[in-house]
Amino acid sequence: MRNIVNNTGINRSNLEYIEQLYTDFKSNPDALAPEWRSFFEGVEFAQEGKFGMSDKELAVFQLIQAYRDEGHTQADLNPLYQAKPSEFLDIKRFGLSEKDLSAKFQVGSLIGKQGATLSEIIAQLNKVYCGKMALQAADASLVAMNWLQKEFEGVLAPLPIEEKKSALNSLTKAETLEKFIHSRYVGTKRFSVEGAETMIPMLETLVTRGSALQVQEVFIGMAHRGRVNTLVNFMGKPEQYVFGDFNGPLELEEPVEGFDGDVKYHLGYISERKTANGTCKLTMAYNPSHLETVNAIALGMTRATQDKLGADGHKKVVPVLIHGDAAFAGQGIVQETLQMAQVRSHSTGGTLHIIIDNQVGFTTNGFDTRSTRYASDAAKMTFTPVIHVNGDDVEAGVRAMDIAIRFRQQFGRDIVINLICFRKYGHNEGDEPAFTQPLMYDIIKTHPTVRELYAKKLTAENSIDQATIDDLYTKAMDRLQGIFDETKKTPPKLKNFKFEGPWKGLRRATDADFEKTANTKFDLATLKKIGEKIGSFPESFTPHPKLIKLLEARKAMGAGKEAIDWGMGELLAFGSLLSEGTSVRLTGEDCVRGTFTHRHAGMYDVKTNKAYFPLADLNPKANLLVAESILSEYGVLGYEWGYSNQDPRSLVLWEAQFGDFVNGAQIILDQYLAAAESKWQQMNSLVMLLPHGYEGQGPEHSSARLERFLQLAAQNNMQVCNLTTPAQVFHAFRRQIHRDFRKPLVIMSPKSLLRHPKAVSSIDELANGQFQEVIADTVDKSKVDTVVFVSGKLYYELLEEREKTKKENIALVRLEQIYPFPAKQVTEVLKSYAKAKTLVWAQEEPRNMGAFQNVYFKFVDVVTKAGLKLGFEYAGRPERSSPAVGSNYRHKVEQADLIKSIFGA
């Protein structure tokens, strides 16, 4: 609460505030809000620093402020329990008593009650701030708070009769669908919306009111509760598909190899709604059982769409996140996505949050799901206003949504609607909730539905008659029965993913695609011009002195006078794509300069701190965004996956500070990156750069957990690479865009190779080369009896040892792409070593980690099919529970032993 008063009701800060307002009033009355003008016109002040205004007037002013800030603590918000008087609003706290209730106060003008008695002022404050809709915005900015207070304190126009009928119709459809499914599919999971049906007309209000405020598209992320009902009764998904899902797995219209599908309450949907203000496109994101993960996904999808629409895209595209109460309070991804709200690289112009507060988390009582008064209190950390709504009052819910969408469009900031309701059944319809909440469910058993309560209200005010209400309900049930019967006779088939919109011109990949070489060549002369630009800066710009030499070297690289290093290879790839009209987006915790200061995609003027990105203005038809993100892997990676899903035409990259940090985003990897295409036909082209390599930096800075990605790799769902040259990364990036299908790309990105004198390429290798899944050795093949396959930076250490020992009988072959395993290329290489007797897989990681467990059987399969007689050996660290040792000395000893095991003492 702001400006808490002392026991006498006097607060010095408020005296000074009011005195300043009075000074402003005397000099320019029109500059003040009407209520303040009215107040000062009715009150006399002395000018010797002492007010003629009584202490009681000031105390009532403090009381009004308290209601504005803390009225929600006394509001009638819980449909199951009566509200209690709030200690924050006890008039005794303000030096007032019952004797003052009949006294008149000019300060009542602040709420339109000038000269009213204290009793009348309190009645008005209770009506405004303590009803079935309440405001919690004391932490919001002053401008936002004043705007919201005016919304609450203004004259409330009654809901038009047509909107009342529409709300009743929405409630009827929501209730009948749940009751129909409950009776036809007894005990089957559906995560009913019952108890929170008000959400459905609220979403309708979002579209009808939002479309008049420039909104053309809405992206929704929500978990299970009410999802099936929302899909049908808001998104417009035909009921026959829902019944078909309940009856048994539906088949695709056209069979797709590798499509496994998912349960009905994970599915997404896309539809269009016609409104009086035009068409509004609705997209519900697919999501797994990991509750709030979809938040970041939906926000990324939103931002990608906004970016394509240009400067006012944030007004046209709105994200809506529908949360469970326990999930909003307990899941860290909520904090991560809230913190993105005003970050330039991840903002979306404000997110509408709806919390379905059913007062139980799975089976956990509400007071055990959090340590705060409300489930929504996590939003206070970002000064996000909250509108609390009693879920039994549909008109309060509609009004809250109307305020929320206008607030979002006005201020470009998040806002939360906390819909306090209940859950009619258990977590799923097969549970017995009375095991853990017996008293609550005694109340719920006899509690009327939202539709019944609203129907009673409408009949009482003569807005609609009971016969019409009953007829609406009967027709809705009869309609569902007809659809149900037809579905049993003729089950519908699922629609295949349509390559339209941003996916137009793309297609689904086949096995054969991974044996073909993509054309990633680029005009040499143009590449040199891009290189010149990368190494240049405006005359008015003052780079850091340590960058001058780097920029000069980059100019020389671009001119072909020096070899291309890793950072230059990346930037040339970005520049080549930008010049072709492909936008590039790279985010991560240190990605502008790079964790290892190799990239410097942007520079900062040492005199002004102004940023300069050499490639930013390369092509006005393509955008470059390289930006450091918040310190988050889970949320940011999910966001970038969502962005790439909605914009497959851009090169979207995320870089981990160290590769192992990605394990904080494992849910995104498991449920989206690896499985989305199989479950939901959702394709993606996200590139992940994960610094990886054993260099004595300890367990947490060595391994990006290559083995985890390879364990998830199947059905050509992703590409996993460990590259060794700048040319390879150049062509890998370009390959992502120049093929006519999309797959995620995981790169075990280097550390020491960023500056390794041999990890370089010529500019011609970039311009006229191609991506090589396997890089063969250049030794005399007639002398080779041992073929060592290796990935990443270990190759250069083995190469150095071979040069020392001059053992030309050992060939070092680089497996650059580990998955999809390039069996064709591996076979060709092995066959070229006619005298080879031994095949060795060498890796830095322990035997139970890295690629060994994955590639072993693939090599065996290749050798068997090719009819080769090769023994197979492993060279690497033994099995370990920790990825690497903590001592740099021990690391060097282990690394030396590893190398010796291949070349001998």
What can you tell me about this protein's structure?
- This protein has 905 residues and is α/β, with parallel strands linked by helices.
- It has 30 helices and 26 strands.
- Strand 19 (719-721), helix 25 and strand 20 form a beta-alpha-beta unit.
- Helix 18 (524-534) runs antiparallel to helix 19.
- The protein is globular.
- The termini are far apart.
- The model is unreliable at 1-12 and 45-52 (pLDDT under 50).
Summed up:
With 905 residues, the protein is of the alpha/beta class. Residues 1-12 and 45-52 have low confidence and may be disordered.
Helix content: 25-40%
Q: Any idea what the shape is?
A: globular
Strand content: 5-15%
Main sheet overview: 8 strands, mixed
Rg of Cα set: 33 Å
Q: How many beta-strand segments?
A: 26
* Secondary-structure content class: alpha/beta
Stretches with pLDDT under 50, minimum 5 residues: 1-12, 45-52
Give the termini distance in whole angstroms.
Answer: 74 Å
Strand order of the largest sheet: 3-11-12-8-7-4-6-5
Query: What is the residue-mean pLDDT, rounded to a whole number?
Result: 93
Per DSSP, the total helix count is 30
